Amino acid sequence: MANHKLTRARLDNLQKTIFRLLEVGKEAYMIRDEQTKHLVDAMNALIIQRNSGLDGFLKTHHLGTPVAIRVQRPNETIAEAKKHLLRASATKDCILKILIRTTLHQHTAMFELEDADTNLLVVDSYDLIISQWLQEKQMQEKTLSV
Fold first, then answer.
1. What are phi and psi of 65, to 5 degrees?
2. Structure pTM?
């Protein structure tokens, strides 16, 4: 009988619930740039929108836990990207993590990747691989022409 009174009281005093998503629209929550979206999508992964440390999860799980993905930002070193990925993935109980490297910084030390944990895979983006390949070809041409 108490539930009936509570239900009647709520129906008599309706309150409008306001959702921020409906006010600002879905697009306001889409914070990933096109490059990040394409890289995560190319891995057949789900894109995460509202997490500053993660960009996505693989659709397949490892030992019942999600596999976290982060794309290196243009203005961050690989060490900074790794730190963000490790911190954010720990809160999601991710065992395996994937870091997509998009830039090479001159001051990046080799040990930053060598001390990586065995559950972290660092993969170069297609753009980075092609850029490095073209630079190598240009260096070869300069060497041959001297």
1. -120, 150
2. 0.71
pLDDT of 84: 95
Q: How confident is the model at residue 113 (pLDDT cuts 50, 70, 90)?
A: low
Q: Fold for domain 32-145?
A: Rossmann fold (3.40.50)
Q: How many CB atoms lie within 10 A of CB 134?
A: 10
Q: Per mean pLDDT, which range of 21-30, 42-51, 66-75 is the poorest?
A: 21-30
Residue 60 host element (H or E): none
Residue with tokens 């190598």: 136
**CA–CA gap between residue 118 and residue 19 (Å, rounded):** 42
Q: What is the largest CA-CA distance in the chain?
A: 95
Task: Quote the distance between the C-alpha of residue 109 and its chain's center.
Answer: 23
- How far is residue 38 CA from its own chain's centroid? 11
Query: Is residue 102 classed exposed, middle or buried when 0-12, 13-18 and 19+ CB atoms within 10 A define those classes?
Result: buried
DSSP assignments along 61-101, one per residue: -BTTB--EEEEPPTTS-HHHHHHHHHHHHHHTT-S-EEEEE
